[in-house]
Amino acid sequence: MQRAIWLLFLCPLFGLAQQSNTEGYKKRVLESTEVDILSSYYEQTGNNASVTGGIGTEQLTDVAPSIVVSIPLNDDDVLTVDAGISTYTSASSSNLNPFDLTNSGSGVSGASGTSGVGGGGDDDDEFDDDNGSNYSGAIGSPWAASSGASRQDTWGGITVAYAHSSDDRNQIWNANASFATEYDYLSLGFGGGITKLLNEKNTEISIKGSVFLDTWLPRYPTELDSYLEAGNNLNSGFFNGVDILDSSGAVTDKNGANTWRPVNGFSLISDKKRNSFALSLSFSQILGKNTQMSVFADVVNQQGWLANPMQRVYFADVPNYFIGNPASIPYYSSSRNADVFMLADDMERLPDNRMKFPVGLRLNHYFNEVVTVRTYYRYYFDDWGLRAHTASIEVPVKVSQNFTLYPSYRYYTQNQIDYFAPFDTHLSTEQYYTSDFDLSAYDAHQVGFGVSYTDIFTKFRTWHFGLKSIDFKYNNYYRTTGLKANYFGLGFKFVMD
User: Fold this and answer.
1) pLDDT value of residue 136
2) Kindly report the CA angle at 43 between 422 and 314, in degrees rounded to 5?
3) Fewer CB atoms < 10 Å away: N or C end of the chain?
4) Closest CA to 159 of 71, 81, 85, 72
């Protein structure tokens, strides 16, 4: 999931205060403690799940509350703590282990009984297929969520940042450290930067750097992991008493040559590290009393295991083998299939190094007290062959002293990377391969709408805090691969007395 897919808070932005006056008075960078309470809900649907090799349900929901506390330590220094969690339920991730073995006759109740990867699907004694016939045996499907342990997960993260401003407020430097964890991943990050204001604060130059030292806690597709656990014996462990079918639905001889086995015997991750190094440069210029422009460029290097071990790959030049109802094999790639699953040939494998180069431009124009236009463009390329363009526009409209509406539109397009191919079209002779549609060619459209309420006098009080603002945002996202998503976000900002 790339969730990817699924959001780190790295370098909070700090507001600039006015410079010292002739009497030596210095305004504080942040007048008082501010608390942001944020929450969001995200849902998506689609039919190109990467965990099941590029087909199958992509249904996912995610709830992500967080809190950001900014504390002025003195006139010049601000400490910010950003903590949040993200709890998601993913139909595709649940199919890391899609199998229900309760009806296989093996005496094993669910794949987790031997593989340790996760539970199976439902516990019905028999399945009624579309033809009205009854099938009793092990089942699984890329089009239905299983009840495996990987179906639900919680990401948790915290970032602590410190920023110091010079007396004349023309220079700010900041540093941050972060930690995040989830079901199969640990991340430790740190970074820092410096910002310089010139030309009576009409020009701003910034440089930032960040490092992430991440570690996989790898989980593998059940059939691949279990094959190693059973010592390559298809009559042991997870596979004991479970029939393996060929593409015609015939039961194979698990002791013979014409049955399923992973390509090249399957090997686990040897390097569980994923390290990322980023350098960012930006330049901002006020072009007139109503217009501001900024340009930015990043260089990102990633090293280590850059593929996702949960994601299956199937090869066109290798025979297909299945577990489940043989009657469903002819329409395996259709959502009609509810009870047969194709055994993976391998997991996703990608190069252990990647260079990324995004460059972009922002242009904001203030027309009057009512309307402002914010535009953005970014071009991205990397050494995996990916090329992408992003363009967006947001038009805040101030409808009253307290309320601002901001409709927005974002367009994104990319080609596919050099190592992508759809379901069951890769060749076993390739060195690298993925069927993750996040790395395919597609166009995406996002339409959004937001409402912001600002109480400049913070009249509403709760305990020692006054309400400064409320923000609500909704985004509707559509990708030409068929993926659709909705996002709802709500935020409250409080200022301490």
Assistant:
1) 81
2) 20
3) C
4) 81
